[in-house]
Amino acid sequence: xxxxGGLDKLPPGTTVLDVGCGIGGSSRILAADYGFxxxxxxxxxxxxxxxxxxxxxGVSAKFLVDDAMALSFPDASFDVVWSIEAGPHMxxxxxxxxxxxxxxxxxxxxxxxxxxxxxxxxxPLNLWEKPVMQQLLDQWSHPAFSSxxxxxxxxxxTGFVEGQVITADWTQETLPSWFDTIWQGIVKPQGWMRFxxxxxxxxxxxxxxxxxxxxxxxxxLCRFGMFRVQRSKVKG
Length: 236
What we know:
CATH topology of the domain at 7-124 and 140-172 and 220-231: Rossmann fold
Shape: globular
Distance between the termini: 28 Å
Strand order of the largest sheet: 3-2-1-4-5-7-6
Number of strands: 7
Oligomer: single chain
Order of helices and strands: EHEHEEHEHHEHHHHE
Strand content: 15-25%
Largest sheet: 7 strands, mixed
CATH class of the domain at 7-124 and 140-172 and 220-231: Alpha Beta
């Protein structure tokens, strides 16, 4: 994702906002491996606390509670805005797109990786796809998945885009991750074991949802979308 977005060409000290950072995995990689100055934001205080605990001293990554739908940073604050699988959580995708672009400096780069559904304007969901999609949204507590095409249009509509939105479909490349996620819970049980019986029950409950995600991505109902945008020097 770093290479695809062209971020490996940027110098150490580049400022990066990781939107929806979770417990900070990608933030730590960007800071430790590339020397970027990273700020990770999440709406969860628990995730901020855990991300901070996991980050070694000397790694230039800090974590804050913030709302991706109303970022607290001024306009044009960061050289790079980065986001992985945060979009499905957002109730208004247009507002999310505008906030991502708003805090990006003129000439800066936005790189996003996200779960998307097939563009149902081109091919409507059929009888079995509709309940599968609803089940996935319910299980993950997501309001909706956007399509690759739909979110690209929302980014364009912000008026901040230089040139065009570059997209890619990485569904095939990421497909093995669904089975591997289940396997990792078996061979590395430390994650759920620290929470005892409740952790085991919660982990087992995830398995049907992960299998359903594998079905959705494997049949083309869902797609793993990549987005790369450069912010224009002047809005308009």
